[in-house]
Amino acid sequence: MTKKIILFGLLFLLAVIALLYFFFSDGNRTTTEKKVTQVQNEVYQRGEQLFENNCSSCHYKGMDKVMTAPALGGVTKRRDKRWLYRYTRNSIGMYKSGDSIAKQLRSENWGLMPSFPQLNNTALEAIYYFVEQRYEMTQKGIPVKE
Ligand code: HEC
């Protein structure tokens, strides 16, 4: 009889430990996921702000329509990251130095894109993160807030 009680006691304890384990490991996972989304949201918002201040007068915020400048959706896949950052900071210099893509863009008869030497890597990462996220949202049919 006492043996049975001890056995049941042990089994019960094991079950409790297993439950606690699942509960906490699951809990930890969701906290990490929450933190990741929070950071992503912050980057998105910073990117959106920078985009509105510097780019949206010429590039459409929904990223899929041509305004006075080309649509930027998918640009991080079309272009190499180093090229993108250099171009955003110094498009005019790149055109003058004979960069083939800059020359190609000029030949499509757009107006000239100004240079943004003040945008550091963190700012550009945020801007291009926003560009691609916003483009995905547009493709899913989520309208642009003006
Ligand atoms: C005054 C208008 C204007 C503003 C503001 C502007 N652009 Fe542009 N952008 C252009 C034009 C016009 C082109 C086409 C290339 C050219 O003729 O210089 C272009 C081209 C580009 C390209 C190359 C696209 C491709 O297909 O390779 C990128 C990338 C780009 N712009 C990013 C930006 C970002 C990021 C900002 C804000 C920080 C910005 N632009 C602000 C006018 C603008």
Beta-strand portion reads under 5%
Average predicted confidence as pLDDT: 91
Helix content estimate: 55-70%
Radius of gyration: 26 Å
Q: What is the string of helix and strand elements? A: HHHHH
Q: What is the total tally of β strands?
A: 0
Based on helices, strands and strand pairing, what is the structural class? mainly alpha
Note the overall shape: elongated
Overall domain count: 1
Low-confidence stretches: none
CATH-defined fold name: Cytochrome Bc1 Complex, Chain D, domain 2
Question: CATH homologous superfamily name?
Answer: Cytochrome c-like domain
What's the total helix number? 5
Name the CATH architecture. Answer: Orthogonal Bundle
User: What is the terminal separation in angstroms?
Assistant: 75 Å
GO molecular function, one term: metal ion binding
InterPro entries: Cyt_c-like_dom, Cyt_c-like_dom_sf
Domain Cytochrome c: 42-135
Protein name: Cytochrome c
Structure description:
- This protein has helices spanning 2-54, 75-78, 81-96, 100-107, 121-139.
- It is mostly helical and 146 residues long.
- The longest helix is centred in the first third of the chain and has 53 residues, at 2-54.
- The protein has a single domain, classed as Cytochrome Bc1 Complex, Chain D, domain 2, CATH 1.10.760.
- Bound molecules: heme C.
- Heme C binds next to helix 2, helix 3 and helix 4.
- The chain crosses the membrane at residues 6-24.
- Keywords: Heme, Iron, Membrane, Metal-binding, Transmembrane, Transmembrane helix.
